Amino acid sequence: MTSLWFTCFAAGCRTAVACSIIAAATVYGPLFLRRQVTFPAFSYVTAILIVTNATLGDTVRGCWLALYATLQTVCPAMAVFWFIGPTKFSYETIALTVALASIVVVLPSSSHVLAKRIALGQIVIIYVVGFIGGVQTHPLMHPVHVASTTAMGVAASFLATLLPFPRLASLEVKEKSKAMVENVAERLRVLVKAFLADNDTVAVGSLSKAALLSTSATKLLQPIKQYQESMKWEWIPLKVCKLGWLGNSQKLQDLERPIRGMELALSNIPSYPILQPLQIESLQNGINSLENQIVQSLNQGIAYSPSDSHTFPESNPYDEDQDQDPVMNTIQLINPTNHKNLPSFFFIFCLKLLQEKSQNNKLPNPQKSEEQKQTPNTTKWAIPSGILSSKKVMGALKSAISLGISVYLGLIYSKENGFWASLGVAVSIACTREATFKISNVKLQGTVIGSVYGVLCFVIFEKFLIGRLLCLLPCFVFTSFLQRSKMYGAAGGVSAIIGAVIILGRTNYGSPKELAFARIVETIIGVSSSIMVDIILHPTRASKLAKFQLTSTLRVLLKCIDSMSFQPPDLKGSLKELGSHVVELKKLIDEANVEPNFWFLPFQSGCYGKLLKSLLKTVDLFAFVNRSVEGIGQNLLVLEDPLSWAKIGENLEEDVEDFKEMASGLVRCCVDVSSLKSLKVLEKEVEKKNKGEGDFEDVEMGESKMVIEMEEMEKEKLLCSFMKHYVEVIEQSGESEDGKREALLSFSALAFCLSSLMKEIEEIGKATRELIQRENPSSHVDFNEISSKIHVVQKGVK
After folding, report:
1. Which parts pass through the membrane (predicted)?
2. DSSP per residue over 160-229, as a string?
C-alpha cells in the first residue's frame, strides 16, 4: 500500500511539474513565446497525454511521436489553408474536412495510439479553431502556432520526467524482475514443502500461501510487460542497469507455467504423505538439491548482464562420484503403474522443467532488437496488412464519423466553444474495441469532477493565480489514484485532470463557470456522438462477440485434441492458436462484464468465468503435453524408427486415439450447441424439416446420437491401459537406465495431462450446458437431443 501511495504521489507530482512549466511559460514567459503558444489548453492536453504515469523511455517515445504527429498534420493543413482559406468553410465542410483528415491519421495500423491522439487533437485545433477565428486566422502561421503549442507540451513533459531525477523503465523492470525472482523462489520453496508434507494440514497451509504469492506474481508481471517497449528508448540507462535475461517479460512468463503445473499437481494429490517415511527421506534429498539449483540459477540470471549470458556459470554441479540427477535416481521409489501417483510424477516433471527454464539464458537476437530500435514500429505504414484490412477501415471510418458529427454539433451549440466536443473525442481515440458505454460514462464523470473542482478552487483563489496552481497538486495525486481504479481507469482520470487544468491553468477566458458548463455540455455532445456511431457501425455487443469467440475457441480446442500424437505433425501451431483465441475471449468477457444490459439478456459472467478458467488450464495442459511428447522422443530412440514404433507403440497410439475420440465428442457437441442462436430457432427448423419429410426426425436422431459424457469407469480404464502400455514400451525399448527413467517421467506427465484434460473438458461441457440453459430458461437442455437435432438440420441443409 505504501508503494502504491508513493507511485501515485510521484506520478501526480510529475504531471503537476509539467503543467506548472506550461503555466509559467504561457502566463509569465516572454512575449515572443506567448505569441507562439496561442492555445495553451492543448499544451496541457499534450503534456498530460505524454507524462501521465510515464517513465523516461515513455517520454522520449512520446516526444518522437509528437514530432511525427505534427509533421503528419501541420504540413497538409498549411496547404489546405493556403489554397482554400479559413473563411470559405461552413459548418458542414469543416466537419467533413476534419473527418477526411482524421482518416489519414487513423488508418495506418502500425502508428502508435499516442501519435494518433496528438495528431487528431492538432487537426481539431487547426481546422475548428481556425474556422472559429475566421478572418483573424492566418492561413500559414495558425498551423505553426499549433505546432509550437504542441512543442511546449512536449518540452514540459520531458523536463518534468527529468526532475528531480528521471524515472527509468529499465530500473523499474530490474526491481520488478528481482521481486519476481524472489516470488518464484518463495513459491517454489512453499510448493516443495507441500509436496514433502507429512500431513494434510501442512500441505493445505502451504498451498494457500502459494495462491497468495501467485496473485502477487501477476501484479509484478504487468508492469514488466508494460515497460518492455519503454526500455528500448532508454539506450544509456539500459546499459547501466545491466539487466539479465530475467529482465525479459517472456522469460519470466516461461517460469510461471511450470509453477502453475506444480500447483495443479499438488491439488490432485488425495492425501499426504505421498510415500512412506523412509522413501520420502531419500526423495527429499534429491528434491531439495534440485530446488537449490533452481534458486541459484534464478539469482544468477538477474545478476548477469546480457553480454555475460553466454558465459553463464553452472549452478551447484554434482560431484563426479554421484549420479548426475539425484531426483531421477530416486524416481523408482514411486510406483509407475498406480494412477494415484501420477500427480507426484507430474510435480517432479514440472520441477525439472522449471530448472530448464531457469537455466535458459538465451536472449533475443540483439541485432534484431537494434534494428527495431532504429526503426521503431511507431511510424511505419503497414499498407498491405493494415489499410486493406476491413477491420482497420471500419475503425478509421468510425473515428472519422465520430469526429465529424461532434465538430458539427459542437459548433451548432456554441461556435465559440465548439472545438471542445471534438477535442474530447480526438484525444481519447482507441485503436481497439473498448467498453463504449463504460468509457463514455467515466469520461463524462471525470470531466464533471475536474470541472467542478476547478470552479470551486477558482472561486476561492479568484485573484491568486499561484493559489489556483497549487490547488492542482492534490488534484493530480487524486486523479493518479483514479487512473488505477477499476471504476474510472485511465479514461476517467485523464478527463478529470484536463477538466481541472483547463480552468485553473489559464487566464483571460472569461467566467470559469460558463467555461465549465460549456465544456460539460460539449463533452456530452462528443460522448453521445461516439456512442451513436459505435452503435451504428458496431451493432454487435461484446456479449454476442464473446459467444462467437467461445465457439471459435472450442473449435481450436478440438483441433488441438486432434493434433495430439507421438508422431509429427505436433500440436505447437494449434496450441499457439488456442492461446491467442483464449486471450481474445478474455478481452471480450472483460468488456461484456462492464457493458450495460439495457433491454438485452444479462451477460452470464459466471458461466463465462468458469469456461475461461478451464480453457486457460487446457492451454497449460496442452503445453505440458507437447513438452512431455518431446521428452519421450528424446529418450526413446525407438520413436525415430517408424517400423519399430508401429510395432512397439501400437497399443499406446490406440489409447491416445481413444482419448481423442472421447474428448472430441464432448467438445464437438459444445461447439454445435454454443453456435446456436437459440433453442427455439432450432425447434422451428426441425419442425419445418419434419413437415416435408414425415417421421424423418426419429430415424435420423437415432442414428446421430453421440457419446458426449465421460463415465468414470471408462476414464479410469483408459488411463490404466495407457499406463500399462507405456511401462511395457519402456521395458522393451532397450534404453539405458537413465533414459528409461526420463522416459517414464515424461510418459507419467503425459498420462497426468490426459487425465486432467478430460476433467477440464468435462468442466467446459458443464459450463456450456449451464450457459445454454440460462440463455434458454424455458427449455430443457439435453446435449444428446440438441446435437441430434443439429445433425438433422445440417444434413437437411446439405
Report:
1. 37-56, 63-83, 89-107, 119-138, 144-165, 448-481, 487-504, 516-537
2. HHHSSS---HHHHHHHHHHHHHHHHHHHHHHHHHHHT-SSHHHHHHHHHHHHHHHHHHHHHHHHHHHHHH
